[in-house]
Design goal:
Distance between the termini: 8 Å
Helix content: 55-70%
Order of helices and strands: HHHHHHHHHHHHHHH
Radius of gyration: 18 Å
Length: 290
Amino acid sequence: MLLRAATGFEGGTVASGSTCGVVTSGALAIALLHDHALKERGLAAEIDVIGLIEKYIDWFTVHFGTTICRVRTEVDFNRVGGQIRYLLPGDRMARCFRHITQAVNYLDPVRAGTSILLSENDTSPREMPSYRCARSVLEKVRERTGVGDSRVERLSFVFDGGIGLTGGLCGALAGGVMALNMLFGIDVRHMSYLQILSAFLIGHVNLLLERPRGMPEPFGLGSTLAKNFASAAGSLECSRITARTFEDWHDFAVHMNSSSFCNGLIDHTADLASMLIETWRPFVRKDAVL
């Protein structure tokens, strides 16, 4: 289910050009590797994992220049010319493949850090924000539609403060995209190469259409959500939406407990994601839902 939920992070989240999917999915992978500690220690372990995510993002930025997809690729996936330039002559797509490989090689040694999270010395702060960005959206959508998953919700803290408090992709939007994809996303482990290629092509064609055609799919619906979110928030990145970055967990918690704008964005995103789910749920093939 986590793999389905991550379907739409390609291209800076449904090809919107925000934080690179290698970064967002890498953050989720780090949390998944430490899920046992997260279940045992809760917030204290979350803060430790956020530290690992910050290191990963620092590494990514140093090696590849930026975490923002639109800057790295210099293309707009919502334009025909942008998609053609990304695919041809192939240099930019190949570069993304290399970055994926290098990121996987970096992330694998993270397993060795698991024991750090099991330390008995726990001095982490205990204050909780009123909203938790992605997790709050996911919980609200589950309450309204029944679509949800406890592990996805538990690991979604990685999007707090724009992915590990670094100011990237807004966590509310990430939560909305994951909520949609738990119903409309794909699980590449159970698909043939041709099925994956077909889903890729259909999704990218739908990005160019005013109204996506055919069965509901991640990019058509996710793009609708992202465009609506950008209009409401003014940006897709947390640092631009809030006009600030967060020093630590306490700083983030204080902000979320006092920001009516961020809390309003969470409610707005949950409303729209729930509406899209209820509108398009009848068109989902029964054998496609896990």
